[in-house]
Write a structure and sequence with these properties.
The protein is α/β, with parallel strands linked by helices. It has a single domain, classed as TIM Barrel (Alpha-Beta Barrel), CATH 3.20.20. Helices cover about 35% and strands about 15% of the residues. The chain contains 11 helices and 10 strands. The radius of gyration is 18 Å and the shape is globular. The two termini are about 30 Å apart. The structure holds flavin mononucleotide. The site of flavin mononucleotide has 26 residues, from strand 8. The site of flavin mononucleotide (FMN) has 26 residues, from strand 8. Keywords: Flavoprotein, FMN, Monooxygenase, Oxidoreductase. It comes from Paracoccus suum. This is Nitronate monooxygenase. InterPro entries: Aldolase_TIM, NMO.
């Protein structure tokens, strides 16, 4: 099956993954202008009580800046953007956020942690497509039954709530029954890894953590630097932080006064998007920093445009290297 046009005209076959707290309009606009799909979780747009919805303001700003860019650069228009909806029972804002995204005709909807037909219907009704993230074939089948257009396979090594499966196993099993849009995530941080994802059978790579180490990301400078200074062995996989398994930077766990090797187990009932850091202290995401295992490739904090240019250069070089074999 061919890719929907909205995903096939990108400079690089890459969708930048939504990241709690980290992804906001500055990051999304820079990603789209650089030619890859930019995205943010709707929940990142938080207003104080009584204020108008910040999500509305963020969408308006993204649309206006990308429009201006497209008028000034008709030969290199920006890539489309995506909004991530956390479809979880503790996300009390879901219905309101769906209505705002529907009104703004958001072109790509990324859904996580639950597949619901009404979210897919809202996206389709305004001309959008939905991509649902999954960690195994059971969830993949459910997402498709509920009407998702495409899948994001979140494999081992991904930042945030990662899956436990090898990308080779996950992609091969999904491709046995699904020939629609398939994105792969988990420790993809070089252009060669983007090409590898395609060689494996995915259509696009889904990349999160490397974009934390950019000036446009909404993250503590120490978090950005820790990513530059760390590698795969500095990542701890644990369910103790939010209740479901995720990958985190061990030095941030130590800085929060905890022992990364003695964290205990987590309880899925802990997961709470009304208070996403969890009720306990220290707080997940703001003090204990999520990160994927691909960051050995990230050596410096550089602008998004440079990171995408680097990925594009590596992607072309990897293609040439493989073609010459
Ligand atoms: C700090 C952080 C926060 C994240 N927050 C979200 C989120 O709010 N919603 C979501 O669907 N995925 C979230 N993710 C997962 C990413 O969307 C993506 O699956 C992951 O970053 C891909 O792996 P990589 O970081 O190795 O590239 C988060 C990841 C990180 C690192």
């Amino acid at each position: 099956m061919s890719l929907p046009p909205i995903l096939s005209r990108l400079r690089l076959p890459v969708v930048a993954a939504p990241m709690f707290i980290v992804s906001g309009p500055d990051l999304v606009i820079a990603q789209c202008k650089a030619g890859i799909v930019g995205s943010f979780p709707a929940l990142n747009a938080r207003e104080a009580a009584g204020e108008p919805p910040r999500l509305e303001a963020w969408l308006t700003r993204i649309e206006e800046e990308l429009d201006r860019h497209n008028q000034a650069n008709p030969d290199s228009p920006a890539a489309p953007f995506a909004v991530n909806q956390i479809v979880h029972k503790t996300n009390a804002r879901l219905q309101r956020d769906i209505e705002i995204c529907h009104r703004h005709k958001v072109p790509i909807w990324i859904t996580s942690l639950g597949a619901r037909p009404e979210v897919n219907e809202a996206a389709h009704d305004c001309g959008g497509i939905t991509l649902h993230d999954i960690i195994n074939v059971t969830y993949a089948r459910k997402a498709l039954e509920k009407g998702a257009d495409g899948l994001i396979a979140v494999a081992a090594g991904a930042g945030g709530h990662a899956g436990p499966q090898s990308p080779f196993a996950l992609v091969q099993e999904i491709r046995a029954f699904f020939d629609g849009p398939l994105l792969l995530s988990g420790a993809i941080a070089t252009g060669g890894a983007v090409l590898a994802a395609q060689a494996m059978g995915a259509d696009l790579a889904y990349i999160g953590s490397p974009f934390i180490a950019t000036p446009e990301a909404n993250a503590d400078p120490a978090y950005k630097q820790m990513i530059c200074d760390s590698g795969a062995e500095d990542i701890v996989t644990t369910a103790a932080i939010t209740g479901i398994s995720g990958n985190y930077l061990a030095p941030s766990i130590r800085n929060a006064g905890l022992d990364p090797v003695a964290l205990g187990t987590g309880d899925p009932a802990q997961l709470d998007f009304a208070s996403p850091g969890g009720s306990g202290k220290p707080k997940a995401w703001s003090q204990i920093w999520g990160c994927g295992m691909g960051i050995g490739a990230v050596e410096a904090v550089i602008p998004v445009a440079d990171r995408v240019a680097q990925l594009a250069g590596e992607y072309a070089a990897a293609k040439a290297r493989i073609a010459a074999l």
